[in-house]
Amino acid sequence: MTLRIVQWTTGLVGRNAVKAVLAHPDLDLVGGYAWSADKAGQDLGVLAGIDPIGVAANDDVGALIALRPDCVLYMPLQWETDHMVRLLEAGINVVSTANFITGRSYGDEEMARLDAAARRGGVSLYGTGANPGMANTLGLAAAAFCRRVDRISVLESVDATHYASKDTWVSLGFGGPPDAPGLVEKVRQRMLVFLDAVEMMAGALAVELEDVRFDVEFATATTDVDLGWMQFPRGTVCGLKGRWSGVSGGRAVIELGLLWRLGYDMEPDWPVERGYVIDVDGVPDVHLRVSAESADLADYGASTADPAVNAIPAVVAAAPGLVTADRLPLVTARGLVAQSRVSTRSA
């Protein structure tokens, strides 16, 4: 049987999720949530930038629940725990890319509330994406080469000029002064999901953490920069280098690094790796370089959406409650090999 899917919002990531669900042989897109009133009633295909598919978005949560979907792909820029709880209690699995890995970054009370809602509904809640998400899973997989692990480092190092989500960057201080009062704490709070990821990796490795530390640097525009969808006056933030460090035994054993830049005229002029640099220090040392690229800018955001879509069958089959990547079977692009696809549907 195919799994019935509702897409929650159609922003940069959500638009790619719509296309990924339509491409998957075992998923059926039956509805969508419209965050803004002007999108309500519009065809999800049109909202995703493709041909109409005959499924309209709406802003009525009750109507979406009435569709009895197996899973909601929850992808808003700003999440609402009440909505997530309502879906879970209605017996609907939720796969989220909305700053969610374990829910710790939402606060312990909200995390417990979500777990309890999922258990009451007999369903699962799972968070993923590109980073945090797949990048952390690859780091854990790389560690399987080792008989001793001293440190795992996952660095995302990218030119994000084409990630046209102004609200995301403004929330991280981009376009503002680097010495703005409270900026470091503002950025830390917006990026708390990386705390989730550090703790998830520590749990998978049976490591007890003493602390999770955060540090950040900012780069500024050396000229006025106009990207079309966002402007950076000279001297304002257009680059960020951050690091989350999970400490055990007085040293960092898990490090999640981030280097994001927008535009090409900045100081410091940090070079980028165009992807992920994953290093495992141990016996033996393991080093990975991973890049997820597309020539079509419409696919920008697919590397966040696709891991969520491909995880749906495993999440639906998982035990009720919060689940993390280390608790799921291997998630692959099952059924998606071009020109040789065989339906994986069961009777």
UniProtKB/TrEMBL annotation:
Coiled coil: none annotated. Residues 192-333 form the 2,4-diaminopentanoate dehydrogenase C-terminal domain. Pfam families: DAP_DH_C (PF19328). SUPFAM superfamilies: NAD(P)-binding Rossmann-fold domains. It comes from the Bacteria. This is 2,4-diaminopentanoate dehydrogenase C-terminal domain-containing protein. It comes from Trujillonella endophytica.
